[in-house]
Design a protein that fits this description.
The complex is a heterodimer of chains A (277) and B (317). Chain A starts with 13 loop residues before the first helix and ends with a helix. The relative contact order of chain A is 0.08. Chain A is 75% helix and 0% strand. Chain A is built from 12 helices and no strands. With 277 residues, chain A is mainly α. Chain A is globular, with a radius of gyration of 21 Å. Helix content of chain B is 17%, strand content 21%. In chain B, the strands form 2 sheets. In chain B, strands 1, 4, 5, 8, 9, 10, 12 and 13 form an 8-stranded mixed β-sheet that branches. In chain B, strands 3-2-11-6-7 form a 5-stranded mixed β-sheet. In chain B, α1 runs antiparallel to α2. The two termini of chain B are 35 Å apart. The chains are: A mainly alpha (277), B alpha+beta (317).
């Protein structure tokens, strides 16, 4: 029998076990805080935000697997389906608790259809569920080549999920910008690979990091310019002022640089191990 | 029920040496140094019980129709962006120095002035009143305030007949308020209301809550409260009150005029662009209750807007 901690041959798998523990950890954490009445005076609101945030995070982790496979971690793929399903379970909890907080099913439906950010979020959720129910071995066999086509929708779902995250924010979009920046980084890696650049190269990763970092800064300033009256130039300039905060663009750049260093270390090691000549 | 956990070494506010005791010692030292005691004495008299004379409950506001919200909730769940975007901002506000505190009253008034909190408290009739507070984020509390009607302050300032609005401003000091280092927000926080609104008995200047000095997280030492409007209108830690003939542009209007306007009167029928205002979560009870027009204070304030276009969305957000 398949368990979350074994591979297909039934052997214990560290990768799957860690992924499984990671999938459960946020749920256990919020459950523990709920039991201790540590969620503040609006506990449902807190859980809604928490499950939404972790949906996005698990979706991004799932999308990170393909680029990481090129960095010497090909076996990570055995945890990908589990992580994708985790995102789906978190978003279902997100909706269920929203419905409880709203008070009635009728009101939940009327709220969703009346507000764009909820429509966007609901479409993303429906997409995740569609991918979830077609993730079984038998569905993969039945759908054949269409399975791949269907599951490419994950990129669109991620975009909609991120848009929902931005739209529901009250003014401050630091966290959505960071998540969007990391998404851009992973899409840039795919783009680089499609153009024949090797993700084993540290230079390629450095380039991806710089491009994605700049894109993140642009995205942040652009959002404030479109959605608020805040001066976009001041938002951009804040990337170079560190007494308030380190803006998300730097974290995205740092992620690219870290992956470049990882790629560089692998190159070095391979160079040392390969016979001189 | 625990809402937050403090390290054991943090002593509760009530166990902190009372300021009167602390100041008393200083005053004696000052006296020994040959400096007059007179400046310290009035504060000694008033600080012992917080306020003197003891503010009496205004019978018109003795019952808000709902239980008073637990103080532990009210002091740990606040919006005070000057210090943090987090509702747990009470952890960050200690650096705010509220004593001494001076309020500048200027603009279209007979005699512009700068008045210390102590003097202001002596000149204003303090009372206690229990009112509902409705946040634009669809939650509400019931708060026992101590303060004085804004109309008393307007009377003291003596605005000219050309003054139409009252503009209030929070302190600006990025040194102590890290949120103010966010460069793209239009600090300081500004809010405003019409003179007619300011003269309404419901418009209240707050200096205390739960029988004590106002906690910093709730906007010490002086804040506005307009119970028929969404909470963001009720500006905290006020340092300047100006009388003007121009409608003040508020902090939130400046940032997102599509979501937060000048009037911001509570109306369950008019949703925020991103959520319904029909219901509110009553903090501390778990209840979700229908929101009332003007937060239930229509009898007192509806007349202020009788001549305005009631269908205009701008009246309600």
């Amino acid at each position: 029998m398949d368990t979350p901690w074994t591979d297909r041959a039934g052997r214990f798998s560290w990768i799957r076990s860690i992924a499984f523990a990671g999938a459960l950890a946020p749920a256990l954490w919020i459950g523990w805080r709920a039991l201790n009445a540590d969620l503040g005076p609006r506990p449902l609101e807190e859980v809604i935000h928490f499950t939404g945030l972790w949906t996005i995070r698990f979706l991004l982790i799932t999308l990170a697997i393909t680029p990481l496979r090129r960095l010497g971690l090909p076996r990570l793929v055995i945890a990908r389906r589990m992580l994708g399903l985790t995102a789906m379970f978190y978003v279902l909890a997100h909706l269920a608790i929203y419905a409880v907080d709203t008070g009635s099913l009728a009101r939940t439906v009327s709220e969703i259809v009346q507000r764009w950010y909820l429509v966007v979020g609901f479409v993303a959720l429906a997409g995740l569920v569609a991918l979830g129910v077609t993730s079984t071995d038998s569905a993969i066999r039945r759908l054949g080549r269409n399975w791949q086509r269907l599951h490419r929708a994950v990129y669109l779902i991620a975009v909609l999920g991120l848009l929902h995250f931005f739209m529901q924010s009250k003014l401050d979009v630091t966290e959505p910008v960071l998540m969007a920046g990391l998404f851009v980084l992973m899409m840039a890696a795919r783009g680089a690979q499609a153009r024949g650049l090797s993700l084993a190269s540290p230079l390629v990763w450095a380039g991806i990091g710089v491009v994605s970092g700049l894109a993140t800064a642009g995205l942040e300033a652009g959002w404030y310019a479109v959605a608020t009256n805040a001066p976009a130039s001041a938002v951009l300039a804040a990337n170079l002022q560190f007494d308030y905060s380190i803006r998300p663009a730097w974290y995205v750049l740092a992620t690219g640089v870290a992956l470049a260093l990882w790629a560089g270390a692998r190159r070095l090691r391979q160079g040392l191990l390969s016979p001189a000549g | 029920m625990h809402y937050h956990r403090k390290p054991r070494w943090i002593i509760p506010e009530r166990e902190v040496t009372p300021e009167s005791v602390f100041l008393n010692r200083r005053a004696i030292l000052a006296g020994m140094a040959g400096i007059g005691l007179s400046s310290a004495l009035p504060r000694l008299a008033s600080a012992a019980s917080g306020f003197s004379p003891e503010p009496q409950m205004n019978p018109a506001f003795a019952d808000a129709g709902r239980p008073v919200t637990d103080e532990a909730i009210n002091t740990t769940y606040n919006n005070f962006y000057e210090f943090s975007m987090s509702k747990s901002v009470y952890r960050e506000v200690d650096a705010l120095e509220t004593d001494p505190w001076t309020v500048k009253i200027d603009g279209m008034v007979d005699t512009p002035m700068e008045i210390g909190m102590e003097d202001l408290l002596k000149r204003m009739p303090l009372e206690e009143r229990i009112v509902r507070h409705r946040c634009v984020e669809a939650w509400s509390m019931v708060v026992p305030w101590i303060g004085f009607p804004l109309s008393e302050l307007v009377g003291m300032a003596g605005p000219g007949s050309d003054a139409k609005y009252v503009r209030m401003e929070t302190f600006k000091n990025p040194e102590i308020a890290p949120g103010q280092r966010q460069t793209w927000y239009p600090w300081p926080y500004v809010e405003g209301l019409t003179i007619e609104e300011a003269m309404n008995p419901l418009a209240f200047m707050v200096v205390g809550a739960y029988g004590k000095d106002l906690p910093k997280t709730m906007g010490a030492p002086l804040r506005l409260h307009l119970p028929w409007k969404f909470g963001f209108k009720s500006v905290k830690s006020v340092v300047r009150i100006s009388f003007t003939d121009e409608q003040p542009q508020s902090f939130w209007q400046d940032l997102q005029s599509s979501e937060y306007g000048f009037w911001a009167n509570v109306n369950p029928e008019v949703p925020h662009p991103r959520w319904s205002q029909a219901q509110e979560r009553v903090l501390g009870t778990g209840d979700q209750v229908p929101t009332q027009l003007f937060n239930g204070y229509g009898e007192e304030v509806a007349g202020l807007y009788a001549n305005m276009d009631q269908s205009a969305r701008t009246l309600w957000y």
